[in-house]
Amino acid sequence: MNTDVNAQLETHLAKKMTSECIQPPYLKKGDTVAIVAPSGILKSREGEVQQAVALLKSWGLHAVIGKNVFKQGHHFAGTDDERCEDLQKAMDDPKISAIWCARGGYGTVRILDKLDYTTFKKNPKWVIGYSDITALHNQLHKEGIQSLHALMCVSLTNDLSKISETVETFKAALFGNPFNYTLKGSDYNRVGETSGALIGGNLTILHTMLGSKESLDTNGKILFIEEIGEYKYHIDRMLQSMKRAGYFDNLNGLVVGDMSKLRKNTTLWGSSIEQLILDALSDYDFPIAFHMPAGHEKDNRALVLGRKVELKVGKGQSTLKFVD
Fold first, then answer.
1. Is-contact 307 198, C-beta < 8 A?
2. Contact 103, 154 (CB under 8 A)
């Protein structure tokens, strides 16, 4: 590790005394990003991974692709051991400055107990992804390290101008350029102001973590949730289960991202997804902001998980400001 990185890391470690999670060093030109696949298979997705390599190169970064990324182990990108091998190698390699997950799907939870953070915690680096990668974000948060909820390699499109905000906020987060969000308003918003460390991700994965050592401590935090392909009653069931487990008891605020491609049951739920969430959380008074453009839509803005944010929620608009 060079002197500049050592100095930056010492500063970040010092911040541990005043912040929830250590911030990995921001990237600079010449740094290397490892592309790994801890979840679903990448059959016929080589083109998108190469596009990701080209994007990193355009930013002055180098890329290395894990040796097992394009393997197949039934549903997964290789066996559990192969997927873990690529991720662990990237975590431990001092020449790697960030780890970019190629895709989600399902499978990360199967390798969590195989990971060793001993070396990683001495040289923390950004881990990037969303959806199934929420399981890894949870573990990183429990280890006290910030991570990046952002697009993955397979999120890229042939015309990047169609996802310009997604790409620009991803780059800004990696290189340490300031960015905050103004969200469009909603009559469903629960008005208020609050602050706390931002945590969360995919609702199904957060629910899956209940009862495990990766289940998040939400005390004093602001929770972000998003979902795809679920029935409304499934979402209600997850929220009710989390509620009964005390998940929301000391939460400071909720930011709701995209609820994409919701399925219709033969017996209709009878209310909007926004009202469902408000009803499930009616026992609490923390602010709730809808319309965060993050999740499984093309407009998937970057979020720094583990970093303190200030949330101001109004009917006309809401603001989410990251605090260094």
1. yes
2. yes
Provide the CA 246 distance to its chain's centre, in angstroms. Answer: 22
Sign of CA dihedral 86, 37, 165, 134: negative
Secondary structure percentages of the chain, helix, strand, coil, to 5: 35, 25, 45
- Pair 258, 295: CB distance under 8 Å: yes
- Lookup: tokens for 272: 């909007």
Sign of the torsion formed by the C-alpha atoms of 129, 135, 136 and 140: positive
Strands (E), the chain: 32-36, 62-65, 98-101, 126-129, 147-149, 181-184, 192-202, 222-228, 253-260, 288-289, 303-305, 308-313, 317-322
| Pairing relationship of beta strands 62-65 and 32-36 according to DSSP bridges | parallel
- Decide: helix, strand or coil at residue 275: helix
Instruction: Kindly report the backbone phi and psi dihedral angles of residue 279, in degrees, each rounded to the nearest multiple of 5, phi listed first.
Output: -65, -45
The phi and psi torsions of 293 (rounded to 5 degrees) equal -75, 75
Strands across the sheet containing 126-129: 62-65, 32-36, 98-101, 126-129, 147-149, 303-305
Q: DSSP code of 262?
A: P
CA 36 to CA 46: how far, in whole Å? Answer: 13
- The region, left, alpha or beta by phi > 0 then psi within -120 to 50, assigned to residue 44 is left
Encode the chain (324 residues) as per-residue pLDDT tens digits: 444 545 545 444 444 333 479 999 999 999 999 999 999 999 888 999 999 999 999 999 999 999 999 999 899 999 999 999 999 999 999 999 999 999 999 999 999 999 999 999 999 999 999 999 999 999 999 999 999 999 999 999 888 999 999 999 999 999 999 999 999 999 999 999 999 999 999 999 999 999 999 999 999 999 999 999 999 999 999 999 999 999 999 999 999 999 999 999 999 999 999 999 999 999 999 999 999 999 999 999 999 999 999 999 999 999 999 997
